[in-house]
Amino acid sequence: MVRSYGHYINGEWVPSESGQWFETKSPTTGEVLARFPLGTRGDVQRAIEAAEAAFPAWRRTPPPRRGEILLRAAQIMRERKEELGRLVTREMGKVIAEGKGDVQEAIDFLEYIAGEGRRLLGETTTSELPNKFCMTVRQPMGVVGCITPWNFPMAIPMWKVGAALISGNTIVFKPASLTPLCVATLVEIFEEAGLPPGVWNVVTGNGGTVGMEIVENPRVKAVSFTGGVPAGRTIYQAAAQHLKPVELELGGKNPQIVLPDANLELALEGLLFGAFGTAGQRCTATSRLILHEAIYDQFMEMLVRRTEALVVGDPLDPRTDVGPVVDEAAGRSIMSYIEIGKQEATLITGGERLTGGLYDGGFFIKPTIFVTEHGTRISKEEIFGPVLSVIKVGSYEEAIRVANDVEYGLSSSVYTRDVNLAFRAIEDLETGITYINAPTIGAEVHLPFGGVKNTGNGGREAGTSAIDEFTEIKTVFVDYSNRLQKAQIREE
Ligand code: UN1
Questions:
Q1: Whether residue 283 lies in the annotated active site
Q2: Are residues 308 and 275 in the same domain?
Q3: 35 - beta bridge partners?
Q4: Could you point out which of 97, 137, 272, 280 has its C-alpha 20 to 30 Å from the C-alpha of 48?
Q5: Cβ of 406 below 6 Å from ligand 1
Q6: Residue 283 CB less than 6 A away from ligand 1
Q7: Is 445 exposed, middle or buried (0-12, 13-18, 19+ CB in 10 A)?
């Protein structure tokens, strides 16, 4: 018997008014892990009411006290890390080392942001008038909405929830329908850590219904969304009707550039992790290798050999390098890109779905490499799977031109030992994150995360930017002169 959850509203699991359910399944075996309600707009409205009712007391709770709850949640997660890592792997399919990494990233962020409770810094500054004091303070926005993806089913929810809570907001939250069990487990951890009822509410269901009610309801003051570009665009447009701030973290087409003087072994290790880690299902995944012609043959030979040795299989087995993709629909979409690649580019290795034995329990795709001209669809569109496009270039300048000529701008990486080129690349690459001699994945949580171009709409999350996303700045002028002083008005 699998457990049936409800929505989590005002500290209780409650049924949906729809009476309908969906199941969350293991991408590896198809086993049903739990059932969740298919939410309605009315369910979201109930959650908003609970969040509004909880807001005044939560807002008055001193931020360091809010931080203590986050720290307690982090502590519980630390104690249960092994089990939670297995849950991430069971529900999402990433290999177990990365499942535990997902949990660690969640813990790291909570620990970091809990400390912000003792800062939430504003500024104090001078005044143009005597006996007057000028400063800014941060205030919570109210009820905020968070909509999260399946690929980091614990880390990304914690980025958003941790930042929203420390800032004093209450939350209406929709998890990805492929990974609600991870979020339900986090909710129970926060309950155990002492989070008051109504402060964090979760409604499960479809983006078009639950997600859009969160976006369109004027009582939700801001929305934070991580996912694909089409959904991001819909959300941004709908929120614009209410002039509602929206934070978007969308796709990527992240390049790794390898220049002739690079440490090739190191570049190869980074590439394998960046391209095929998480089966390529990170927005930061390396989907393009931009390879200098001087080392092209040598590097390709090394790359193909190592790629073909990657073990595709059960993600709970620590010897596995690449697990299944998240579900059948994702697998089909990736395979259709592979078919496109076979038409427009040269398949070097992989390119097929694996079948037989354990492979029949899920959708497993062989790590795939194409060599392509720059400009093909596989070289420019986000595939979100274990598919790498290799593009040969003749110079640093060409490498940068190719790297930048895509609609996305999340992460980029350059392998070189030339410090001058490294710094030029930091300046030249049009991405929100650039790595020197490290892969495109693996951003640390205490720095801002996000991208330029179609990767987002200008904001950043995590790091100190997390607080900017979830607070309003109030500018305060205190006049203690006991007379009317007029700024700007002078007796000339
Ligand atoms: C994502 O794929 O949406 O930098 C987030 C990384 C991880 C976060 C990825 N720390 O790869």
A1: yes
A2: yes
A3: 4, 23
A4: 137
A5: no
A6: yes
A7: buried
